[in-house]
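Quick one, T. Sequence first:
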Amino acid sequence: MPYRASLHLSHGFRYYIYAPMQLCVGSFFDRFGARMILVPATLFCCLGCFVEVGGTAPAYLIAGRFLQGFGSAFAFVGTMYLATQWFSPNRLAMLSGLTTALGMMGAIAANGGIAKVVQKAGWEVTLEGAGFFGLIVAAVLFFVIPSRAEAKRKRPVGMPEDYSPALGFFPSLYKVLSNPQTWFSGVIGTALYMPLSVLGALWGVEYVCSVTGESKEAASWSVSMLYVGWMVAGPAAGWVSDRMGKRRLFLVAASLLTLLTSALLMVVESISLLEMNLLMLGIGVVSSVQVVSFVCAVEHNPRELSGTSIACTNMLIMLLGGLAQPLVGVVLDFAGGANDAGVYPAQAYRWAMVIVPASAAISLVASWLLKESFHPGEEPAEVDYRG
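Structure tokens:
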């Protein structure tokens, strides 16, 4: 296999394993607890770094990315699972927002910082450093996260005395996926994630270039305003949702505002870069309420299935959000097609952007059908952190 082809394949392997693993990771957390899962998962990521620099053959690249994808599949669900176990349910939305914000801050910092490290030290040294840093993280997790036996000494409020997390993989999935509220939460989360999936991850730079006439560098800064909106507004929206004791109201409002702001992507014909920056920031702010959808999934399902609830919601978001990306390409080809240089006309991009407000319209219906899930007064189990 040619080296360049194998390189593209190796990048894809991280996502090939990440997405289907979401069906399993929640059940693993519910059954075995956080420490028994997160520590090995971190070690898999470390091993992937070391394997990737272990040789020049394509097999090393593919195996390394596969291991990294397998380990990282537990990251977001594990963080949210710990939030459900360590903190009051009255703070879950804020913690969901903080988790998302920290992830985006890490991605932005890593992209800029690691690029400089790679330039100075080389990618092999950078990956080895990441692997050794991961070993430190694994050690910290081992000593900070309580063992399953210690965590079970005190049960969350409302759990029966004969509670056992070992419901099994398929019974857990069936219980969560047979609940219509899980699907409503997943659809809402997917729709509000759509601006990041369509604009932030793939088509945003080309869209901004076509509409504003600016360079790709300037357009990339404009698209980054989406992430700034999520970083700032996500935790704030979660905090206000917790304080007000409202989930459904926030998701209805977010869906409506995302519909209105993203609809502007279809109608603007001439816009300055500053105005585009403000528009992207606004879309990021209103769609960041997506973090509340994970909390709804948790609150609408049994407490002992928190991990499975989060993982199923994340699976729906990643799967449907990923399918939207090639769909935009299909609309672009249908609406105008690319020229010899591979550039689509601005009108084609405006037609393709219909996917974002259309998704928000579906979210508006789903959030209207969603039941309020907030139940005040619940407190978490007291956990011995000496695990």
